[in-house]
Amino acid sequence: MLTVVVLVILGLYWLIDHSAPLPLNHEQFG
Predict the structure, then answer these.
(1) 20 phi and psi, to 5 degrees?
(2) Per-residue DSSP letter, 25
(3) Which residues are within 8 A (CB) of 22 and not within 5 positions of it... i.e. 6 or more apart?
(4) End-to-end distance of the chain based on CA atoms, in angstroms?
(5) CA-only gyration radius of the chain, Å
């Protein structure tokens, strides 16, 4: 169950980063 939640969260971060890059994400992940 936990693995599925992690994959969903990572997927959302990926979509946000590729659809509408945020300065906050770039500060955190370089």
Answers:
(1) -145, 85
(2) H
(3) 16
(4) 29
(5) 11
Tokens of 12: 């959302």
Residues present in the chain in total: 30
SS3 21: coil
How far does CA 4 lie from the centroid of its chain? 14
Q: Tokens 């946000």 appear where?
A: 16
Segment 1-30, tens digit of pLDDT? 899 999 999 998 888 776 665 565 556 665
Report d(CA 4, CA 23) in Å as an integer: 27
What is the pTM (predicted TM-score) of this model? Answer: 0.50
